[in-house]
Amino acid sequence: MPVDIISVEKLHSGYNSSKVLNDVTFNITKGDYVGLVGPNGSGKTTLIKTILGLFEPMEGNVSIFGERSWEFKDWHKVGYLPQKLVSFNPHFPATVKEIVALGLLSKKAFPRKIDRNDEMAINKALDLMDISDLKDKLIGELSGGQGQRVLLAKALVNEPDLLILDEPVTALDPETRERFFNILEELNQVNKVTIILVTHDIGTIGKYASKLLYLDKKIIFYGSFEDFCGSDHMTRYFGKFSQHIICHRHN
Ligand code: ADP
User: Fold this and answer.
1) Cα–Cα separations (whole angstroms), residue 158 to 74, 104, 121
2) What pLDDT, on the 0 to 100 scale, is given for residue 228?
3) Cα(247)–Cα(251) distance, rounded to whole angstroms?
């Protein structure tokens, strides 16, 4: 039996009285690699925030690892990279190593001290993102791409079971982007990490993800790329050309 990592049932969600998500139902099971795609304002970030328990749904239920998201406590199982990159003040007095270490603190009780195992985990995450040489640099001194890699290392340092990445590659150069996608693929295939990748890049997501969740305030499509590409209903919805753009890397 596949294990549900996320289960969303009849979710209605939004802000004050304006509803953004309408009757959204889907499951994500262990080892899924889901590309979450949709136009601007289609509710992708709202959905992620609801999954992360940042607000209660207006109606319906959202479970993460079998618990209601707003009651869930084991956040160390989840690595999250938000969309908006925080730009650090150049004089912000934290090093790369300290920022990555923050990712470990969510599973620690007080007093929160970094031990030898933590050091090893931090070094491993820095090595994975190829930024070991930046370890002692101040975070504010880094370029945008370097800063993004630091935040990715922070999201990975706990070896999370679920990774949620909101537009993660925008500040990365093509080489680092490729490397980053290779790392995600390995985490997904070898370590069975479940991944949700939010992206505008509808033309390349099929190259990486195994499932497509297309959202436009409600679910337009959820399933494998094979099913999406072979669906006459989706041809009618998107038109042959747009369907082809989403599919071409998959054919
Ligand atoms: P996406 O991530 O797909 O671009 P969002 O979930 O960010 O979409 O936004 C969906 C809708 O919700 C938009 O119309 C947006 O203006 C609105 N919205 C987003 N955040 C807030 C907020 N904090 N308060 C009120 N409305 C919001």
Assistant:
1) 12, 6, 8
2) 92
3) 6
Low-confidence stretches of the chain (pLDDT < 70) are 1, 84-88, 106-112, 171, 249-251
Residue 95: DSSP 8-state:
B
Q: Is 37 in the pocket of ligand 1 (CB under 6 A)?
A: no
Q: What DSSP string describes 63-81?
A: EETTEETTT---GGGEEEE
The dihedral of CA 171, 175, 178, 182: what is its sign? negative
pTM here is 0.89
What is the residue whose two structure tokens read 């289609």? Answer: 42
> How far is CA 119 from its chain centroid?
25
Q: Is residue 41 lining ligand 1, measured as CB closer than 6 Å?
A: yes
Q: How far is CA 83 from CA 150, 194, 198, in A?
A: 14, 19, 9
Ligand 1 pocket, mutate which of 11, 15, 170 (most atoms under 8 A from CB): 15
Bridge-partner residues for 251, per DSSP? none
